Amino acid sequence: MLTVDEVGFFHENGFLIKENIIPLRIIEDVKMELCKYVDEMAKKLLSQGKIKNSYAHLGFYERVSEIEKEFEHFSVLLHNIAYYEMQQDGTPKSVRKVWSSPELVEAVSQLIGPKVSGHPVWNLRVKTPGQEQAVVPWHQDHSYSSRDSWDFVNITAWIPLIDATVKNGCLQVVRGGHQKKIVAQHTCCVGNTWYTSLSDETIEEELKCNLNNDVVTCEMKQGSVLFFTFHTPHRSLENTSKDIRWSIDLRFHITGEPNGSDGTEESIVLKDANKNSELQIDWDQWGKNRVKPVPDDPFTTTVSGPWMNEWPVETHNRHTLAFIKDDK
Ligand SMILES: O=C(O)CCC(=O)C(=O)O
Questions:
Q1: Which of 17, 125, 217 most suits a substitution to test ligand 1, by most atoms within 8 Å of the C-beta?
Q2: How confident is the model at residue 284 (pLDDT cuts 50, 70, 90)?
Q3: Which of 185, 150, 155 shows the shortest CA–CA distance to 262?
Q4: Pairwise CA distance, residues 50 & 247, whole Å
Q5: pLDDT per residue over 7-48, tens digit each?
Q6: How far lies 60's CA from each of 95, 126, 309, 328, in Å?
Q7: Can you tell me the distance from the alpha carbon of 321 to that of 34, in angstroms, rounded to the nearest whole number?
Q8: 324: helix, coil or strand?
Q9: How far apart are CA 185 and CA 262, in angstroms?
C-alpha cells in the first residue's frame, strides 16, 4: 500500500497524505449514515419544539448550518452524538467499515507495525461555515491523552468527507514537530471552545520548529487520508466557504500499549500480528464493554474531559464550566 519512501517521509516529517486510499463507495456509506443521524436529531429537536423547521429538503453540506441558525451549536451536538455513541448501536456501521478497511489498516500497520488497535476515541467534525468551535488551534493530539501514553506511538487518520481546501478549513501540520517526541506545554481552552492549544512560541522554542518554513497546508481530495502522529502539531483553518466541511478522525495505536484513557477504556484489535486470516472484529462486544459517559441531557452541546485538568485553563467558557460542574 505505502511505498518505502512514503513510510520514510512519515517518520521524518510526522505526517503523510495518501491519496485514493479509502474506496469512495465506503465514504458515500458514511455520508448516508450521517444524513440519517442528522435527520433523526432534527426530528427530535422538532418534536421537542427546539426548532421550527427541520430543513429536510437540504443536502448533506447545507442542512446542519440551517438548523444551527435555530438551535445554536447543533454541529457540536452531532459531534457529541458520535462521541457518546448515543445511537445505541455503538460506533456507526459505516465508520466501522472505514476503520477496519484493509486499505487503512494495512497502511497503518506499515507505519506502526503489525499489531494494530483502534483507539477508544474517534471524532466526527461537522465544521459549519464561520463556526468558531470548529476552528481547532495548534495542538498535539497527545495533549488530550493521559500521560501514561505520551511516550508511545499513536497515530491519527484524518479523513475528509468533502474535498478539503483552504477555503473550507483543511488541516495544517508542522513538519518535523514530532521529532523531539515530547508533549509541549499546552493551555486550555481557546475562546469558546474545548480545545487545547499550543502557542507559536512554544512550537518554536520547545519543539524547535520554524513556523515560517515548517507549516504544511493539507488540501486533500475525498478518499485520501492524512496520517499524523500524536506528537505532530496541527490545526484546522476557518471554514469561509458556504458548505459544511465534514470529516472523521480515527486513531490507532500498537496493541497492548496505553491508549491515552488512563486504563479506563478498551481499544479494539484491528490487526493481529499472529493471524494470517482475516480478523473477526467484534464491534458490538467492544461497544458493550466501553465506559459510556452518556450525559443526562441528550441535547448537550458542551464538550469536556480530563485534558481540562491537565493544562492550565486560561479562560473559562461554557465547556470548562460544565467540566467543573461534572467533576464535583
Ligand atoms: O478536523 C479538524 O478540524 C481538526 C482535526 C484534529 O485536530 C484532529 O484530528 O486531531
A1: 125
A2: confident
A3: 150
A4: 26
A5: 999 999 999 999 999 999 999 999 999 999 999 999 999 999
A6: 17, 10, 36, 39
A7: 29
A8: helix
A9: 20
pLDDT surpassing 80 at residue 136: yes
Give the integer Cα–Cα distance in Å for 128 and 162: 13
113: left (phi over 0), alpha (psi -120 to 50) or beta: left
What CA–CA distance (Å, rounded) separates 176 from 173? 9
Testing ligand 1's pocket by substitution, the residue of 135, 171, 218, 224 carrying the most ligand atoms inside 8 A of its CB is 171
For the record, the C-alpha cell of 58 comes out as 437540504
> Which of 143, 236, 240, 250 is the best mutation target for the ligand 1 pocket, counting ligand atoms within 8 Å of the beta carbon and taking the most?
236
Å from CA of 236 to ligand 1 middle:
6
What's residue 292's pLDDT? Answer: 62
Region 162-176: mean pLDDT is 98
Please count the other Cβ atoms lying within 10 Å of the Cβ belonging to residue 226: 23
**What is the second-level CATH architecture of the domain 4-24+101-273+301-327?**
Sandwich (2.60)
Length of the chain in residues, anyone? Answer: 328
Say which residues have a Cβ less than 8 Å from residue 319's Cβ, sequence separation at least 6.
189, 192, 193, 194, 302, 303, 304, 308
The set of protein residues with a Cβ atom below 6 angstroms from ligand 1 is: 125, 127, 136, 141, 156, 158, 234, 236, 247, 249
| Ligand 1 nearest-atom number relative to CA 141 | 10
Distance from the alpha carbon of residue 169 to the mean position of ligand 1, in angstroms: 10
Per-residue pLDDT of 242-276, as tens digits, reads 999 999 999 999 999 999 999 988 899 999 877 65
